[in-house]
Amino acid sequence: MLNLIWIFFFTAAFVVALIKLMAFGDTQIFGQLMTAMFSLSKTAFEIALGLTGVLALWLGIMKIGERSGFIQLLTRGLSPLFIRLMPEVPKNHPALGAIVMNMSANALGLDNAATPLGIKAMQELQKLNPFKEAASNAQILFLVINTSAVTLFPVTIFTYRAQMGAANPTDVFIPILIATYASTFVGLLTVAAVQKINLFDKVILAYLGGFSSLVFGLLGYFSSLPQTEMLAQSAMISNVTLFSLVMVFIAGAMFKRVNAYEAFIDGAKEGFETAIKIIPYLVAMLVAIGVFRASGALDLVANGLRSLILSLNMDDRFIDALPTALMKPFSGSGARAMMIDTMQVHGADSFAGRLASIVQGSTETTFYVLAVYFGSVGINNIRHAAACGLAADAAGILAAITIAYWFFG
């Protein structure tokens, strides 16, 4: 599947560029494609290089948590849920701890922490995978939940909106949470349908109900705070929670007389090795995305959708934010740039500006996560992972558009 996607990006870029050259005399288009290839290959290496330190840091910390026994304790409370969602993962397996930590980091908006924790989870799941080149059911479920994970504190989006002059940068907070919750729920439903997971199991229903209550409880609390207080408290809670977990790991190591420093070094070595493995996969995917964007194929899709919407006599205001939605599954930085461009052109408080912000916070970057997580363990056959991830993306985008009209239309 990943092979077909990769080939499609290059083929579509070539066809569009050839048409521009032959039919419209655009002699610069192939030069732009080559520039995109070289610049994106450099960007891919820089991303992997930047991840090296972060991977070494967080996998080192995870190793402390693993040897101190804290991760096993943390996963014990969630084991009943994951045993039912991932029956092939044994109870108290290290993968469960990494999955829990990854989901927590995503919920707190801590992207730098979430990525190495997610890679650690994928590596642990790979140890249980009987077919090493094909994604297991557990790996697919984890990846889809990861790509659609609920973000409780989208502080980065608030910051961009403030910089772009929004009167109330946090007015998209509740819409973002509703949209990202919708994408996660649809992602879980889609995987459950393919893998025949019984979501009506009493234990699963109890956990999902509890998580839903927590999300909507936080919604109610933060929506009642003034803008500055909301930003300050969300940032504080994120940072305090993460550093507290680090200290709990260290305290656990001291209590069990584990050499925390040696444990950290061992984990950091694994992080360095993982970063090296990621480079080829990142180069392959980011270059393909870059030429697809540089050819103008993405613009053609957006313009075609606008014409279709207008022909149906529908409101086309959402089209102005659509480039962010179309780019989001492929490139996080590209989607972020398109969000900022939308706010610059239309205004941060315009319908398009708000919708672009909601879309940016509704899902993760599906193909980036596919490339990094599966690439880190050498998986080539991703089975239904991309389809289920894209279904979650579509749900998040549709929810974002609906909610934007509801709140700001």
Task: Walk me through the structure.
The chain has 409 residues and is mainly alpha-helical. The chain has one domain. 78% of the residues lie in helices and 0% in strands. It contains 18 helices and no strands. α2 crosses α6, α2 runs antiparallel to α12 and α12 crosses α17. The chain is globular, with a radius of gyration of 22 Å.
Topology diagram in text:
Blueprint: H1 2-24, H2 29-68, H3 70-76, H4 79-85, H5 94-107, H6 111-127, H7 137-147, H8 155-163, H9 173-195, H10 202-223, H11 227-255, H12 260-294, H13 297-311, H14 322-327, H15 332-346, H16 351-362, H17 366-375, H18 385-408
Helix pairs in contact: 1-12, 2-6, 2-11, 2-12, 3-5, 5-6, 6-7, 7-9, 7-17, 7-18, 9-16, 9-18, 12-17, 15-16, 16-18
List keywords for this structure.
409 residues, mainly alpha, 18 helices, 78% helix
How would you briefly describe this protein structure?
By secondary structure, the chain is mostly helical.
Helix content: over 70%
Give the class from helix and strand content and strand pairing.
Answer: mainly alpha
Report the order of strands and helices.
HHHHHHHHHHHHHHHHHH
Largest β sheet strand count, sense and barrel closure: none
- The number of strands is 0
Radius of gyration: 22 Å
Weakly predicted, low-confidence segments: none
The span between the termini is: 39 Å
Give the mean pLDDT.
85
Number of domains: 1
**Hey, roughly how much beta strand do the residues contain?**
under 5%
Shape: globular
